[in-house]
# Entry
Amino acid sequence: MYIGGLTPNTNPTKDYGVVAPLYYKGGIFVHDGVIPGPLGDNTEKTSIGKACSKNILWLVSFGDSSIEAAKADGKITKIASIEYEQLGVLSGIIYHKFCTVVTGSSAAVETKTDAKSATGKKK
# Structure
């Protein structure tokens, strides 16, 4: 139970988790924004992966906007940064699109082998 009946805002794009900021910042009819997310490993930004989910009329939802889906799209193994993109029409009632954009490196894991196992012969 939360104090005073308030629940925490766990939306990764905090301003869009409640309707009030849309009134004073604008965006009731159309809003479009890019929100920086938490940072990952300190790695190069050589690959970009994007995963989106969409909603129409609050009736039909489809897509996968998870971080794992974005990593798979860009074949990313180490995350450098995460951003979220949102587009909504009439506060997201008519149409809403939420995308997760992951940047990072897709370097394959290198394994070292000695000459004996690489050639298959004994020395």
